[in-house]
Amino acid sequence: MRIVLSGSFWCQPIVGSGQYLHGLLRYLPRVAPQHEYILLLPVMVGAVPPLPPVVAVRYVATPFDGKNRHSAKLWYEQIGVPQAAAQLRADVLHIPYAAPPLQSSVPVVATVHDIIWLLLPEYRGKATFRAYTKLIPPAARRAAHILADSEHSRRDIVQHLGCEPSRVTTVLLAAGDQFHPQPSDQAAAYVQQKYGLKQPFVYYVGGLDARKNVSTLIRAFSWMRSAGGPDATLAIAGRAPHADPQIFPNIDVLIGGLRRQSEIRRIDVPYADSAQLYAAATIFAFPSRYEGFGLPPLEAMACGTPTIAANTSSLAEVVGEAALCVPPDDIVGWVTALWRLLVDTNTRSDLRQHGLERSRMFSYQRVAQETLAIYDEVYRQHRY
Predict the structure, then answer these.
(1) How far apart are CA 237 and CA 284, in angstroms?
(2) Are 283 and 202 in contact (CB under 8 A)?
(3) Angle 341-343-345 (CA atoms, 0-180°, nearest 5)?
């Protein structure tokens, strides 16, 4: 097969869609070297991270390059990509995020990571974004097949996008290869030297938007300390890309109001240091209200870090019984879980072992194998 993939997120390897595309393209050629793989990139993409040598690259220009980035993005996705795939005589076109074209002569497989923009009103954005997302449901229904990151997301896609259930398949994601156990004392020394963080500390990394529910974690940590809980630090890594208070609550104001500036730290962590922070942390906490999958808890468990996660959306599928699970808005539950793990070394040891075992169930080799099975199914259905 000649498999063409849209590479919009190849140059964003830190975001979830970028991590997914990088993991997929690392392992697809290993699992099935007999196929041909071509990555399409927008002309205006900028610096391109190295690609596996067996993956070819084709650039797609648009009439709006350098003029209007929104129009260029739309043209690239809806016209440029399907045209390029047809010119390349692709057997399958994979769009690895929720932007399948409405029309394509090449059968389309699309990965829809989540439909947050449809389920949560505050994420529907301005008129231009709402108009853009209106294309997704009909385009998803026309795709040959949809991949979902979790069974929870699959149900949402079937219910809210109106896709035929038989054409939506769950392919659980995986943590990147860099997330694995490492000597915690070395990681702790590195993190203390670079970030000034001493153990014990609770770690959160991820978005700072409202659904991530970081405010509940901050309040629970402050309450625990006020109640005489263990001496510890809460380290929060993440950025708010813009200052919309409806989507991005100002957590600095919250931290200041609680007078916890010395105990609750905001840190800027480059992606290269992610595994070190996980490994050095005493606990990883992830209170998100909604996820399509939820990579950070899996990354933390893969590094051997005891984890607390919200018991909502897809997170139960990710962590299973290998983490403490708490309702996302149950502050008392979060206080109790934080306190327990900070003082109970036996529970931490058990969760570390269970988390490592759980994380080994997820791999990009499996992601590639299951994705290739869908490519093959779509190819056989559309070859004549």
Answers:
(1) 12
(2) yes
(3) 75
pTM as predicted = 0.93
- Whether residue 194 is found in the same domain as residue 208: yes
Distance between start and end Cα atoms, the chain: 14
- Identify whether residues 352 and 375 lie together within a single domain: no
Find the mean pLDDT for residues 302-320. Answer: 97
Q: Residue 107 sits in which domain range?
A: 2-174+363-382
What six digits make up the tokens of 159?
């219910």
Say if residue 220 is in the same domain as residue 348. Answer: yes
**CATH number of the domain within which 48 lies:** 3.40.50.2000
Instruction: Answer whether 234's CB lies under 8 Å from 197's CB.
Output: no
Task: Write out 113-159 in H/E/C secondary structure.
Answer: CCCHHHHCHHHCCCHHHHHHHCCHHHHHHHCCEEEECCHHHHHHHHH
- One DSSP character per residue, 202-240 reads EEEES--SGGG-HHHHHHHHHHHHHTT----EEEEE---
Residues 120 and 218 in one domain: no
Selection from 303, 282, 271 nearest residue 345 by Cα: 282
Please name which of 98, 105, 55, 56 lies closest in space to residue 79, comparing C-alpha atoms: 105
Tell me the two tokens of residue 266: 């905001």
Instruction: Judge if 168 and 198 occupy the same domain.
Output: no
Average pLDDT over the chain, rounded to an integer: 93
384 band by pLDDT with thresholds 50, 70 and 90? low
Q: What is the pLDDT of residues 39-61, one digit of tens each?
A: 999 988 777 888 899 999 999 98
Distances (CA, A) of 68 to 48, 63, 102, 104, 305: 21, 9, 21, 24, 44
Q: Mean per-residue pLDDT for 136-150?
A: 97
Contact 25, 41 (CB under 8 A): no
Query: Which residues does residue 55 pair with via DSSP β-bridges, in sequence order?
Result: 37
Separation between Cα atoms, residue 11 and residue 1, nearest integer Å = 25
CB 312 within 8 A of CB 327: yes
Residue type, 15: V
Number of domain units in the chain: 2
